[in-house]
Amino acid sequence: MSVQFEERRKIFKLDTAHTTYMMGITNEGYLGHLYYGDRVKHFCGDEALRLAEYPGPAAREREKQAFLSVFPFEYPTGGVGDYRESCLNVRNAKGQNGCELWFDSYEIMEGKPGLEGLPASFGNEKEVTTLKVVMKDPVLKLRVELFYSAFETEDVITRNVILRNEGNEPLTVDRVLSAALDMDDQSLEMLTLNGAWARERHIQRRRIGYGKQSVGSIRGVSSPQEHPFLALLSPSADQKHGDVYAMNFVYSGNFLAETHKEHMGNVRMVMGIHPEGFSWALEPGAAFTAPEVVMTFSSEGLGKMTRSYHDFFRKHLIRSPYKDLDRPILINNWEATYFNFDADKLLGIAKDAAACGIEMFVMDDGWFGRRDSDNCALGDWVVNEEKLSGGLKKLVDGVKALGMKFGIWFEPEMISEDSDLYRAHPDYAIQIPGRRPTLARNQLVLDFSRKEVRDTVYEMVYRVLKSADIDYVKWDMNRYLADLGSLSLDAEHHGELFHRYVLGLYEMQQRLLDDFPELLLENCSSGGASFDAGMLYYSPQIWTSDDTDAIERLRIQEGTELVYPMSTMGAHVSKCPNEQVGRNTPFETRANVALAGTFGYELNIAELPEEDRKKIPGQVARYHRFHSLIANGNYYRIHSWCEEEPWDCWENAEKDGSRALLTYVQVLGRPYTLSRNVKLEGLDAEAEYTVSKIQDGEETPVEGTFYGDVLMKSGLWMPALGDYQSCLFVIERK
Ligand code: DGJ
To answer: Most C-beta atoms within 10 A of its C-beta, which of 440, 604, 683, 709?
Structure first.
């Protein structure tokens, strides 16, 4: 039984394979946090609630405020005397803010209910047990359902919250976060993923000080600047050692992830929809569902956290039929042509690609309306037959005749002022009447909170997809939200726009998948601005970054794969000098780095040097040889070039230890240097292995006798390489 309740002391205990989570109910009915950490067999006492400490129970009525401001609340509320970060702020019909929750009842169920309109993890009765704790505010007549789902094997506990107005008066929810974790001071550090366009998800680590430290987004998307992920670590934690408490948000809009170290030195960690710009009118009888947070704890450092997240997302969040399949190796024309193409040029690129074994051609931006630059035509999802003479079907059939699949780009959430759609429906754009809206990439955002807007766009997209045999859609989104104004919302409901927009987006993507169940959907947002767990529910892969430089990618992919499975990272080999940073890297290294994700190309093969072109068939074969290992095996981060020495190294090992692939990249070469020792992980200690090295496209056996324990403890020796050079080692059980 992974969820238990001890009646006598009123303590809930949730167990996964290696972790335990406990919370207790006080005599008054407060729900407090007791423990999250390594699995323990027995129930703990309630000392962590500090009920015997100042202010003692007798003084509690008189000194209730002092009590509220230190009690480790499971789900803290605002307005009545807890001054730390609140999860729930609710105003009554008179506009007065205050909410206090008391335990009402609980229910334990096998399996896990879905979340209406939202992406959510899933599992059957054997895989997950859910605890629902019902809390009530009798004054507001508000019912708050706290859900905790324990996924035993993956060491994950998901949390979400449903609010229900059980009264006769309207309530206004000013903030509703999805999870809090109150912890004693452990001198923790916080790890976040920060960045920018083309520099997404760089790992940042800092000491938690007094006060609030947060990452968040108020841009309408999860954003490349800050990422909906937060881990608190013991200061010495590394890949293999130390405690890690992590939260990840299954949501693609505004978010807040925060630590609050308060006056007693304790730390509260929270995650949820960002309260800035948010409010929700909760009418009598209505409910609001807050998105899900995925929590995990590891006492074996970041590596274990990563592997728990990878297993969890692969098994319990990603739904696509492509999830466990090799993805078609694609070639995308964006960096090869930008807007400057016609059908012949595209077919030429596809033909050269097919000859090298590439399996899918993706036509990027520029095929519709009068879209010859990024200044116009978004919203006009009608094929430009001047560019694609003979129409889309002719091009698709031409590509199919080469034995390739066909993919197409859309940016459904956007509208250009210079478009037929805007001329017909200027009100479809999010904007505030009378104010010149802020443009970004010369475009505006469609009001996806409105059904008629979604329907109009969907019809156009649907028609295009029905008109030819299309296998793949790249769903792009190239600006953030601003000038929040919607025709469909009155003043009382305007704070709902950000969230309603995200719900509209999810509804659109679900509709697309319902109508085209075999479609391979790849989300994208100016590169990787919407790489988040919410999107993974709809698309098994996401374009990781517009930065395709192999060296820049090392850092971006390291931060991304810290949380997300490698099979979700869109990664392409592009031309040199690189379009984003002008760097020249060996073709081999570009392919070795892209091999870590969903492998593809973003260039015109005809423009490649002959020696590079000749390497493509070997790279294609290598993807198929290793993809299932990379996609489904265990990932180990061996070294990060961002930390000390400029070399980068990671390993993918089969879960049974039968095979591993080690990728080694020398970012900067060094004169007068020795070979480098690398210790492998995840092998079978007793087994004997063969080792071979793949360098410059050649695979050569490494001489010697290699046992698993020796490879893991004594290590393997890497050759001295020059700037940007790389190689792969294949380790196979005999
Ligand atoms: C941004 C994407 O990240 C690129 O890959 C490309 O599709 C462009 N948009 C097209 O406008």
So the answer is: 683
Q: Give yes or no for a contact between 642 and 193, defined as CB atoms under 8 angstroms apart.
A: no
Q: What is the DSSP letter of 208?
A: -
- Among 698, 697, 694, 703, which residue's Cα sits nearest to residue 729? 694
Walking along the chain (734 residues) 10 residues at a time, the average pLDDT comes out as: 93 98 96 98 92 77 89 97 97 98 98 97 98 98 98 98 98 98 91 98 96 98 98 96 98 98 94 98 98 98 98 98 95 97 98 98 98 98 97 98 98 98 98 96 98 98 98 98 95 97 98 98 96 98 98 98 98 97 98 97 97 97 97 97 90 98 96 93 98 96 97 97 97 98
d(CA 147, CA 598): 34
* Ligand 1, atom 1, residue with closest C-alpha: 526
Give CB contacts under 8 A, 24+ apart, made by 701-705.
Answer: 702/729
723 is catalytic: no
Ligand 1 site-directed mutation target among 365, 408, 602, most atoms within 8 Å of CB: 365
211-217 and 360-363 strand pairing: unpaired
Q: Are 430 and 481 in contact (CB under 8 A)?
A: yes
Beta strands 330-332 and 360-363 are parallel
Contacting residues for 606 by C-beta, under 8 A, at least 6 apart: 348, 349, 352
DSSP letter at 607 equals G
Which residue, among 269, 299, 76, has the nearest Cα to 183 in the 3D structure? 269
Nearest to 265 by CA among 179, 180, 183, 181: 183
372: Cβ–Cβ under 8 A, 6 or more apart, which residues? 339, 340, 366
Query: Which residues, including other chains, have CB under 8 Å from residue 130's CB and lie 6 or more apart?
Result: 3, 108, 109, 110, 111, 112, 113, 147, 148, 149, 150
Q: Over the Cα atoms of the chain, what is R_g?
A: 27
277 Ramachandran zone, left/alpha/beta (phi>0; psi -120 to 50): left
What 3-state class would DSSP assign to 347? helix
| pTM attached to this predicted model | 0.98
3-state secondary structure of 717: strand
Of 8, 43, 46, 41, the closest CA to residue 24 belongs to 46
Q: How far apart are the C-alpha atoms of 473 and 381, rounded to whole Å? A: 13
Q: CB–CB of 576/327 below 8 Å?
A: no
Catalytic residue among 476, 532, 549, 648, which? 476
pLDDT of residue 61: 83
- Burial class, 642, CB count within 10 angstroms (exposed 0-12 / middle 13-18 / buried 19+): middle
What are the backbone dihedrals phi and psi of residue 681, each rounded to the nearest 5 degrees, phi first? -135, 165
Which ligand 1 atom sits closest to the C-alpha of 374?
A: 11
Phi, psi of 647 (to 5 degrees): -135, 155
HSE toward the beta carbon, residue 648, CA cutoff 13 A = 23
Annotate 621-687 with three-state secondary structure.
Answer: HHHHHHHHHHHHCEEEEEECCCCCCCEEEEEEECCCCCEEEEEEEECCCCCCCCCEEECCCCCCCCC
